[in-house]
Amino acid sequence: MGTESGRNTTGAGPRTGAASVRARPADVLVLGGGLIGLVTAWRAAQRGLRTEVVDPAPGGGAARVAAGMLAAVTELHHGEEALLRLNLRSAARYPAFVEELAEAGGRDVGHRTSGTLAVALDADDRAQLRELHALQLRHGLESEWLTGRECRRLEPMLAPSVRGGLRVDGDHQVDPRRLAAALVAACGRAGVAFVRSSAARLSVVRDRAVGAVLDDGTERRADRTVLATGSYSGALAGVPDALRPPVRPVKGQVVRLRVPPAHGPFLSRTVRAVVRGGAVYLVPRADGELVVGASSEELGWDTTVTAGGVYELLRDAHELVPGVTELPLAETGAGLRPATPDNAPLLGPSGLPGLHLATGHHRNGVLLTPVTGDAMGELLATGELPAYARPFSADRFGAGGSDAGGSAGGAPGDDPRRTTRQEAL
Ligand code: GLY
Question: Best mutation site among 70, 75, 270 for ligand 1, i.e. most ligand atoms within 8 A of its Cβ?
């Protein structure tokens, strides 16, 4: 284990059973280097705070698996109005965010504004989609009903059985792998130090979080510690039980196909549907990658890619766009969404002085990256969570949220304290 900031690497700490404390505490210690931890660290460093990120592989985790849909409108659900407001705020932030990040991180992040088409394959799907459309319109969202023929005119690869759909030009996409790589680079340039290890235990002194003990027994100290370890956020030792964030893992399996350059246009926008009750989406990237997702499985921290999972995704995608089965299969993967009881994130103070939360983004981790960075940067710099983020404080679950899911998924692998995989698909 060492620390890295830009190209600088310091030596490893001693490997002893007792925690050895580093001399100079950081201002901010971020546990978890997925998209949410990275954007938090980047924004903190931009505010002049000495910031460290603890993660064995920054930029890995769920960002390696996620399709990157920015689907505030097509993933709207009844009863999630507060989340909708946050999602829309973050979606509106995306253009400026990716421009700033591309500059700061020195690379393109694959932001595409080509829109989304949500289609129905049978009468039941169509009725469900009509319901969604009515809900969208009640919230003043832009969404246009199309007949099956109009859908196929937009996307000629769609199956003849498509019965209608919703055209949502405002639901865009970004490439989460590129986004994560840009955030790692931007953090490095802003002076964030990377500690390539996992947090084993929160350090608490006189009822205040003061940092974390790492897997190798060393301790990092900081004035403010941010828990951003995605689906592992409810499992960190040392967090008082009553304050454990109620976060559980929800597995998503994903398949990556490749549209050969010689093939010509395949899909021009994200296409999605509900087939046999399960959501399936196809997200076409500018570089020819086609991401097909995703299962939704409550199996604890298991990330096995199963034959059945891949079969079902390809079967449903084939029903939607028959040509997919002719494409080369590039990759399969599984990631873990960090779900909360109300599907919304946990942002801000944890109830334990010195410990803040940036976790629980469930299906919206990529979408909520910009607004999470804004809110956490403000909180860490000023001590005040902005008003738009306050509905997402941990206190909405009461003092003890752990019964709602903090330990519901069982132990992650053989060590429930590990914090090695991050956030939402
Ligand atoms: N937001 C897409 C997913 O979670 O699968």
Answer: 75
